[in-house]
Design brief:
Distance between the termini: 94 Å
Largest sheet: 5 strands, parallel
Order of helices and strands: HHEHEEHEHHEEEHHHEHHHEEEH
Structural class: alpha/beta
Low-confidence stretches: none
CATH architecture of the domain at 69-169 and 228-358: 3-Layer(aba) Sandwich
Radius of gyration: 24 Å
Number of strands: 11
CATH topology of the domain at 69-169 and 228-358: Rossmann fold
CATH superfamily of the domain at 69-169 and 228-358: SGNH hydrolase
CATH class of the domain at 69-169 and 228-358: Alpha Beta
Helix content: 40-55%
Number of helices: 13
Shape: globular
Length: 364
C-alpha cells in the first residue's frame, strides 16, 4: 500500500518537474524568437522618413540598433543632406547635430564599434561620397576598441555588417532578469496598449514612436533621434556613485591606461593620414575625438600609473601633430566644465557634457 503511494508521489513529482522544464523551454524559445527575429526590410525606410519629417525618436530593441544606425547612415548620405559624419562606439551617441553651428551632421556611432570597422566606413565615404567633407572618428581607448588586432576591411554600403550570435548567448540573454523584465513589459503593453502611434518622450521635448519595430522599453523613446544621437534610458549619475567610481571603480579602464594607451598599430595611423588627406582635397578634414570620462577619472589613473596621460598618448599625439591632423582630446571632462551628473556611467556622457566640449571646437 505504501509502495503504491510512493510510486504515485514520485510520478507526480516527475510529471511536475518535466512539465515545468517543458514550460521553461517554451518560454525561453518564445523570448529568443521575439528578441532575435528579423524586422521587415520596408520598415527601416518608413522609420527613416518618419524621423526626417517629425524630428522624432524611433523606439528599437538593442538587437537591431546597430543595423538600424548603419542603414540610416547610408540612407542619409545618399540623400546628400549632410556634410559631416561621426563614427565610433556608443560613447559618442550623446553628440547631437545642433551642437554644430555651420555643419549638417549625422551621428553614425554604433555599439562597441571596433576601430577597424570605423576606418573602413571612413575610407569609403571620404573617397566616394562627394557631400561628405568632414569625418569625426572616435578614439575610445578606455574601452580598448583601438587595440584590437588590425584588419583591413572594405566597406560595402549595400551589405549590412552582421554579427552571428550563438545559441548559448541567446539562451543566456533570454534567462537574464533584464530580458525577462523587458518581455513581460512588452506583453503587458500589447494587452493594454492604446491606438496612439506617437507620444511625447518622457525625458525631453521630443516625440517618439514604437510603430515600426519592437522596442525594449515601450513609450520611453528608447532609440535614436533623427540625427543619429541616442536617448539614454538611465538616470544621471549621483555624487555618491561618482565618488565610488573614482575611488574604486576604474579598474577596467586602468588596465587599458597602463598596458595599451601608449600603443597603436602604425597602420591605423597611416589610415588616419590617408582619410585626412582625402577629405582635405574636398575642403574638409578628419577629426579624431577622444571621448570624455567622468571628472577626475583620467587624473586618478595618472596618479595610480605614476605616468602622465599625455605621455602615455604621445605616439598618437606626435603623429597627428606631424601630419596636421586635428585631435579633440576630451578625456579629462572636468576641463570642459562637465560634472558627474552629465554622465550615465563612467564612459557614457549625456548631450549636456558634449555640448560643453564642442562649444570649444570649430571646423573653421
Amino acid at each position: 500500500m505504501r509502495t503504491g503511494k510512493t510510486h504515485k508521489y514520485v510520478y507526480f513529482i516527475l510529471t511536475t518537474l518535466l512539465t515545468t522544464i517543458a514550460l521553461i523551454g517554451v518560454a525561453i524559445f518564445f523570448i529568443i524568437y521575439t528578441t532575435f527575429s528579423t524586422e521587415k526590410e520596408s520598415n527601416y525606410e518608413k522609420a527613416f522618413q518618419w524621423q526626417i519629417e517629425n524630428r522624432g525618436v524611433v523606439g528599437l530593441t538593442i538587437n537591431i540598433s546597430s543595423a538600424y544606425k548603419q542603414r540610416m547612415l547610408e540612407w542619409r548620405i545618399a540623400k546628400k543632406d549632410i556634410d559631416t559624419i561621426l563614427l565610433g562606439s556608443s560613447t559618442f551617441m550623446g553628440i547631437k547635430e545642433d551642437m554644430f553651428t555651420h555643419n549638417k551632421v549625422f551621428n553614425g556611432a554604433t555599439n562597441s564599434n571596433i576601430l577597424y570597422y570605423t576606418i573602413a566606413v571612413a575610407k569609403y565615404h571620404s573617397k566616394h561620397s562627394d557631400t561628405i567633407k568632414n569625418i569625426i572618428i572616435g578614439f575610445d581607448w578606455a574601452l580598448g576598441l583601438p587595440y584590437w588586432p588590425y584588419k583591413k576591411i572594405i566597406h560595402n554600403p549595400n551589405i549590412e555588417k552582421k554579427k552571428e550570435i550563438s545559441l548559448i548567448d541567446k539562451i543566456k540573454d533570454a534567462v537574464s532578469y533584464q530580458r525577462v523584465k523587458i518581455v513581460v513589459e512588452n506583453i503587458i503593453d500589447q494587452i493594454f496598449r492604446d491606438t496612439v502611434v506617437q507620444y511625447k518622450c518622457p525625458h525631453e521635448d521630443t516625440i517618439g514612436t514604437d510603430q515600426f519595430f519592437k522596442t525594449d522599453q515601450p513609450k520611453s523613446c528608447h532609440g535614436f533621434r533623427f540625427d543619429g544621437s541616442a536617448v539614454f534610458p538611465g538616470v544621471p549619475m549621483s555624487e555618491k556613485q561618482w565618488k565610488e567610481y573614482v575611488d574604486n571603480g576604474l579598474e577596467k579602464y586602468q588596465k587599458f591606461f597602463d598596458k595599451k594607451l601608449g600603443t597603436i598599430d602604425t597602420r591605423y595611423l597611416n589610415d588616419f593620414k590617408e582619410i585626412d588627406r582625402t577629405l582635405k582635397r574636398k575642403g574638409g578634414r578628419l577629426i579624431i575625438l577622444i571621448p570624455p570620462l567622468i571628472p577626475k577619472a583620467t587624473a586618478t589613473m595618472e596618479k595610480a600609473s605614476k605616468t602622465l596621460y599625455s605621455d602615455k598618448l604621445h605616439r598618437l599625439l606626435q603623429f597627428t601633430k606631424e601630419n596636421n591632423i586635428t585631435v579633440l582630446n576630451a578625456s579629462k571632462s572636468e576641463k570642459f566644465g562637465c560634472t558627474y551628473s552629465d554622465f550615465l556611467d563612467p564612459h557614457h556622457a549625456f548631450p549636456t557634457c558634449y555640448a560643453k566640449i564642442l562649444d570649444t571646437f570649430s571646423f573653421k
